[in-house]
Amino acid sequence: MKFTLSWLKEHLDTDASLDQIVEKLTMIGLEVESVNDPGKALALFVIANVVSAVQHPNADRLRVCMVDTGDGKPIQVVCGAPNARTGMVGVFSPPGTFIPGKNITLGVGNIRGVESRGMLVSEAELLISDDHDGIIELPADAPVGTPYAAYAKLDEPVIEINLTPNRSDCTGVSGIARDLAATDIGTLIPKTPKPVKGEFPSFVSVTLDFDSTPSLCPAFALRLVRGVKNGPSPEWLQKRLKAIGLRPINALVDITNFITYDRGRPLHVFDAKKVKGNLVVRRAKPGEALTALDGKTYTLDDTMCVIADDAGVESLAGIMGGEASGCDETTTEVLIESALWEPLNIAQTGRKLGINSDARYRFERGVDPNFMVPGLELATQMVLDLCGGEPSEIGVSGKVESPEKVIEFPVSELKRLAGLDVAMPEMKRVLTRLGFFVAGQDANVKIAPPSWRPDIEGKADIVEEVVRIVGVDRVPFTPFDRGTAPRKPVLTALQTRTRKAKRALAARGLTEAVTWSFISKPQAELFGGGSAELALANPIAAELSDMRPSLIPGLIAAAQKNADRGFPDVALFEVGQIFKGDKPEDQLTAATGVRRALAKANGAGRHWSAKTETVDAFDAKADALAVLIAAGANPQALQVMPGGPAWFHPGRSGTIQIGPQNVLGHFGELHPRALQALDAEGPLVGFEVILERIPEGKAKATRAKPVLELSPFQPVSRDFAFVVDGKVKAGDIVRTAQAVDRKLIAGVSVFDVYEGTGIEPGKKSVAIAVAIQPREKTMTDQEIDALGAKIVAEVSKRYGGVLRG
Amino acid sequence: MTDVAQLDQSILTDIAAAADEAALEAVRVAALGKSGSVSALLKTLGGMTPEQRKEQGPPINGLKDRVTAAINTRREALKNATLDARLATETVDVTLPVRETPVEAGRVHPISQVIDELTAIFADMGFAVAEGPDIETDDYNFTKLNFPEGHPAREMHDTFYFNPKSDGSRMLLRTHTSPVQIRTMLAQKPPIRVIIPGRTYRSDSDQTHTPMFHQVEGLVIDKGAHLGHLKWILQEFCKAFFEVDNVKMRYRPSFFPFTEPSLEVDIQCKRDKGEIRFGEGEDWLEILGCGMVHPNVLRNCGLDPDEYQGFAWGLGIDRIAMLKYGMPDLRAFFEADARWLAHYGFRPLDFPTLAGGLSS
Fold first, then answer.
1. Using CB atoms, which residue from A420, A490, A537 is nearest to B163?
2. Chain B closest CA to A461's CA: distance in Å?
3. CATH architecture, domain defined by A493-693
4. What is the CATH superfamily name and number for domain A40-151?
5. What residue spans define the domains of chain A?
6. Of A24, A25, A171, A514, which to mutate for an interface test with B (greatest number of B Cβ within 10 Å)?
7. pLDDT of res. B2
C-alpha cells in the first residue's frame, strides 16, 4: 500500500515530521517498507526557457536549442523532440544528470557535429508517465531556474507500507490516518461522503443469479450518470496517482483508482452505451473468455464470478473490468459499480488467473460493507464535479449485511494477556478513535468493533488493538521464572542419540552435511523408496521429487560433487530423517556416512607413514559400530551378518542386527551398479543405521557403576592359528573360542588372516589370541594347556579347523 | 710399599688407557682376576703376622678399592660413549608431517551446532525439546493453526503437497514447525514449555530462499504467561545466543493467523563491511515473529482460552546461524561443499554449553 505524505495529510491533521510518522506507522503494525523521496532523484532537473530552437544543420529531425536556466547564459542543446520550439518552457538536465527513464548518466555529447550540453526531457525519461511523444511543456509562467520536481510536486515522499493480510481497513489512506489518529500523533479529518440525489431511475437493472449455488456477491450497487464529458483528469488528481505509480487514464477511471486508494473502496465504471441490455452477476460458464483491461484474454470457469450483459462477460467481478465496456474519451454515459464480493472467492480467482489488481488486493482482504453505498456516492460526486452529468437513482441488488458483533471484554484481559496496565479512560480513548463502540465503565465492558474491521473476533483482538496503539514498548519485561521444576534432562532418548551420533561421527573424521530431504524418483526407487505416497505433487525440480528413503544417495551425490571440484577424498555423514511412508511413525532417523577414495578413518589421502590404501568395507563397519555404540547400543549384543541391501556389494557388505527381527543397519562397499546409476565413481563405502532401532537401556535406580573386579592373578595369552575353509567366518571362530569358557576367557582377538603360499588353495589361516584371566588361583601349565586343547577341539569340530603347523 | 704405589700407578694408567669395554675387562682381569696383580698382593696378607697385616693390609685393600672404583667409573664412561655413538647414528626427520587426527578433521554442521546452542539456552530456562514429522496433514499445518480453508494466508506459504489420496485428503510437507505446537498441546497437559527445532519446506528457491530450511519455535502454555514474559524470554535468548551483554530489541505489531496479538521482533545492529554486530549500531534487523497463542488455536487443542494462555515464537535457524557466524549465502548450507563445511563447521569436541561458552 503506497501513499504520499500530502495525501495522508488530507485525512490527518498533524504537525509531525515524516520521520515521526514513519516511525509511528511501523510501531502500530503498519510496517513501513520504504520511504521514497523522488525529489532527491530529480534534484538536477530544472525548469528552463528555450530561447531559440533552430534546425540542426546536418539532421532533418533535430533542432539546436539554446536553453536558459535563469542565469542568462543559454546552453546549447540538441533536441529531437517534435515539440521543441522557440519560446517554450521545458525541463532541462545538465551533463552529469542521471536520467531514470533511460538508465544513463548524461555526458557532453556531439550530435552530428553539434555539441550538446544537456537535455530537454520527456515525462517518460523522468519515469513520471509513459508519455515519450515529446518533451515536457510547462506553462509560460513556470519559474525558470527552479527544480522541476518541486514545481510539479513530484518531490513528495512516497511511503509504502507492508500491509498484513488482516488489515483491510488500511488499504485506503483514510484508514491509515484513522490508525495514526488513534495515537496522539494527529487528528483524523472526517470526510463522510454526502448522498447525491438521483434525478431519474436507472434504465440498467442488475440481477444476482447464482441459481442453486452459493452466492458470490452479497450486494451490488449501481448508478448511471448520463451526459458526462470524459477526458484527462485534473492535474491534482493525475499528480496524486502518478506519485504512487499509477498511470492516469481518463477522469472516470482515475476517479475509481483514486477512491480505491483514498478509501480502500474499489469501484468499476462501465461505458453504459457499450453495455448490451441489463447486467447479470453470475458464475462464469466454463470456457467463457474475457479480454480484460490489461489487454489479456482470460478463460474462465464456474468457480469465478462475473458481471455479464446480453453480449457476454463484461467484467471479472472484484478483480478487473473488461476492455469492451471500458470508459474512454467518447464515454457520455457511465455506470458506476460498487459491490461486495466473497473475499475467499476473489482470492482464489485472482490466484487462478494470475491477476494482481488493486481491486483484488482489497476485496480478498474484505472491504467495509457499510461503505459500499457511501463509496458510490463519493464517486458520483466526483464524476459530477469533474465530468458533469446527471445521476440516476442508486440501484442496490442483494443486501448489505454488516455483522453486529459485540465482545464482552473484562478489562483485566489486558493485564492477563499482555501484562500491561492501561487505565480505562485511555483504553476507551484508543478504541473509540479506532471506531470501536465501548459501552460501560465497570470491570466488564461491551465492545462493538466497526464495520471496517472484519478481523476483530474476540477479546484477544481487543487486547492487540490497545497494545499496538499504546505501544508494545509499554509492556514491561517480566522475568519468567523457571519455577521449582526439577532440573531433569530435557532431551528425549532419540534426541540424545542424535546429538551423540553427530559428535561421534565427526570425531571419526567425517564431516556433517545437510542434504535435501527429497531426491529424484529414480534415486528413491534405487534405494527402496519411490512409492506414490512419498512423491511430491508439486516438486520444484525433477531431481527433488520424492522423499528420501535413505541418506546414502544424497551423500554419494555430495561426495561426487566434491570429487568433481577436485576433492576426491571426502568422508561425509548426515544424521537425519528418512521416510518409509507418509505417517509420523514411518519417519525414521538415520545416521549415515560415506567415505570416498582415500578418506580412511585414520586419515585421508596419501601419507609417507603408511601404504596408500583406499576405503574398504571395514572403514564403514567401524563407523557404523562406533555410531551405534555412541548412541547407546550394547556392543556385545550387536551381530554382524554378511550381505546387505541391493545397493551394496553383495560380498563386501554386512548387516548389523540384534537378532533377525531387529536390523539396526548396514555397511559396506557400494554396488558398482548403484554408483553407475548415481553417476558416481568409487571407491565408495558407506553405512546407514537407524537410531530408533537401538533398544532402550534399562532405567537404573542409581547412577553408580557396577563394582569393579580386579583379579590379583596374572593374565595369560595363548595364540592359535587355524587353517580352515576359506568360507569359514572369523567371527564364528572368535565366538566359538570365547564360548569355551566364558569365565576364564576374557577376550579373543584375531591378529592374522592369511591365504597364499604354504596354505592349501581354498583355505585360509586365521590366527587368534586368547586372553585368559585366572579368577581364583594362578593356573598351572597343564590347566592352561587343557583349556587350549578344548578351544582347538571346538573349532576343529565346528569348522574343520586344524592347527597350523 | 713402593710396590703398592707402583702397582697403583700402573693399573690406573691402564684403566684410563682402556679404549673399550674389552680392554677394560683385560685390565680388570690382570689386576683383580684370580691371578691378577692386586689379587696376588691380597693373597700375601694371609701369610702375614698380625702386626704385618695391620701395617700392610690397609694400603693393599685401599689399592683394591681404588682399582675397583676406577674400573667401574671407566666402564660407565665407556658404556655411555658407546650409547652416545649409537644414538648419534639413529635420527629421524622430525619435520615430517604427522597425520591430522580424525577429531581435528571432522566437522559438525553449523545447523547442528546452533540447535545445540539453542537447546543449551532454553534448557536452562526450563524448556524441553519437542519434535514432529516433516510430512503433515493440512489440519495440523494449517486448519488447527487458525488458517481458514482457502485463506490467502495459506498461499503465502508456498506449500509442497503430496498427491491426493482416494478420500480426497492430501498430505503436505510442513511449512513451519508450528504443527508440532498442535501435537504438543494435544499430547501434553499444561504447563508446557518447549522449543521445536526442525526442518521445514516451502516451494521457493532463490538467493535467500531454499526449498528446505530450518526453524525453531518456542511454545509456552500456562495460566499466567503473558506478553511481558515473552519479551523477557526473547531478550534473554538474544543476549545469550549472540553472546553480547546488551541487546536492544524492537517489538512491532504484526499478523500471524495463529497468534493474537502478533509481533515481529527487530534487533538493533551495526552493519559494517558485510559484518553484523549486535548490541550496537542504529540499524534494525528483523529476526523473529511471535505472539500470544490465538484463542482459536487453544480451542482447537482442547484448551479453554479463558483458563489457559501462552505465547509462541519462531525464527529461522539457518538465518540466525548466518547472522552469528557470518555465512553470506543460505544455499551453501545444503551444498555439502567440503571446503565450506571445513570452514564454517564446528569441531566435534566444541560442544556448546552455558558453562563453557556457546562458541568459545
1. A537
2. 6
3. 2-Layer Sandwich (3.30)
4. Nucleic acid-binding proteins (2.40.50.140)
5. 2-37+157-188, 40-151, 206-398, 407-471, 493-693, 716-803
6. A514
7. 55
Which residues lie closer than 8 Å to A705 by C-beta, 6 or more apart?
Answer: none
State pLDDT tens for residues A247-301. Answer: 999 999 999 999 999 999 999 999 999 999 999 999 999 999 999 999 999 999 9
Where residue B1 falls among pLDDT bands split at 50, 70, 90? very low
Distance of alpha carbon A529 from alpha carbon A507, whole angstroms: 31
Residue B190 CB-density burial (10 A; 0-12 exposed, 13-18 middle, 19+ buried): middle
Write out pLDDT tens, residues A129-181: 777 778 898 898 889 988 888 888 777 889 999 999 899 999 999 999 999 99
Report d(CA B177, CA A452) in Å as an integer.
Answer: 33
Return the number of CB contacts < 8 Å for A and B: 260
Q: Which has the closest alpha carbon to A789: A741, A756, A724?
A: A741
What distance lies between CA A511 and its chain's CA centroid? 29
Q: Which CATH fold would you assign to the domain B107-344?
A: BirA Bifunctional Protein; domain 2 (3.30.930)
Element (H, E) at B323: helix B317-325
Is the entire prediction scored with pTM above 0.95?
Answer: no
Minimal CA separation from A562 to chain B, in Å: 6
- Structural domain boundaries in chain B: 2-89, 107-344
What architecture does CATH give domain A716-803? 2-Layer Sandwich (3.30)
Query: Average of pLDDT values for A568-580?
Result: 97
Q: Which CATH number fits domain A407-471: 3.40.630.30, 3.30.56.10, 3.20.10.10, 1.20.1300.10?
A: 3.30.56.10
CA atoms within 13 A on the CB side of A289: 6
Its ipTM equals: 0.90
How much is the pLDDT for A39? 76
The reply to whether A251 touches chain B by the CB within 8 Å rule is no
